[in-house]
Design goal:
single chain; 240 residues; alpha/beta; three-stranded antiparallel β-sheet; globular; binds 2-amino-2-deoxy-6-O-phosphono-alpha-D-glucopyranose
Length: 240
């Protein structure tokens, strides 16, 4: 696992964005695994800027998102579908048919999990972008998730709901469940890029890099992969 420490969030976003730009330029038909949350916003902004500058095209890129909340329609401003539209998809030339996000609207969740898993496993993700939850979750794979888990319907921990409350007007509005890629899916990516910013991530980053490999800290599964880059700012690196 390669750990890169940068000064602040802006440097982190530029570094992560540059790595993804380099991949798109060297392999224009690459497959990207994408993440949501506050941390990748700057990375997506960087990609949009590079697209607008004419440095990259995403017309042949395929994407798979990690996860989606249940209990929210796709039109809800906090759905991950909306998040991706607002922050990346509407601003670049990705083809709608190349974009994949689990669908939790008007459906049988198990059927959706199976369908998403099948689609995901029919592709090979070249680069999986990840954030990390303060409890060490990746995607929405919460502590205790088996490292062998494939795409599944998961319950969100209270810690995760509290962390994500800032995006909603009250805790009551934060969904209790989600469809997420499993850890086994994430580990199949050719390369993984995890980004973390701020002191709230210092503990889980220390656990990820130096703690025991355990299902209680789902991100530690990444230590079983041979091509992982972690980019952290100085605040998130404080306990390394
Ligand atoms: N499902 C997402 C994760 O993919 C993300 O990594 C995490 C951290 O988000 P943030 O970047 O806002 O701290 O939030 C959510 O739970």
């Amino acid at each position: 696992m390669k750990v890169i420490t940068v000064r602040d969030y802006n440097e982190l976003s530029a570094k992560a964005g540059q790595l993804i730009t380099d991949l798109i330029r060297s392999k224009p038909d690459c497959t990207l695994g994408l993440a949501t949350g506050g941390t990748p916003l700057g990375t997506y902004q960087y990609l949009v800027e590079r697209y607008r500058a004419g440095d990259i095209t995403l017309k042949d890129v395929q994407t798979f998102n990690l996860d989606e909340y249940c209990e929210l329609p796709r039109s809800h401003e906090q759905s991950y579908y909306r998040f991706m539209q607002d922050n990346l998809f509407l601003h670049v030339d990705l083809r709608p048919e190349n974009v994949h996000i689990p669908c939790t609207e008007d459906c049988d969740p198990q059927v959706q999990c199976d369908e998403y898993n099948r689609l995901l496993n029919s592709a090979t993700v070249d680069l999986q972008l990840l954030g990390i939850g303060s409890n060490g979750h990746i995607g929405f794979c919460e502590p205790g998730t088996s490292f062998d888990q494939e795409t599944f319907l998961t319950s969100l921990s209270e810690e995760t709901r509290l962390d994500n409350q800032r995006f909603f007007s009250s805790l009551d509005e934060v969904p209790h469940s989600a469809i997420t890629m499993g850890i086994a899916n994430i580990l199949r990516a050719r390369s993984i890029l995890l980004i973390a910013s701020g002191k709230g991530k210092a503990r889980c980053i220390a656990d990820l890099v130096n703690g025991p490999i355990t299902e209680q800290v789902p991100a530690t599964a990444l230590r079983l992969h041979d091509n992982v880059t972690v980019i952290v700012d100085e605040a998130a690196a404080a306990l390394l």
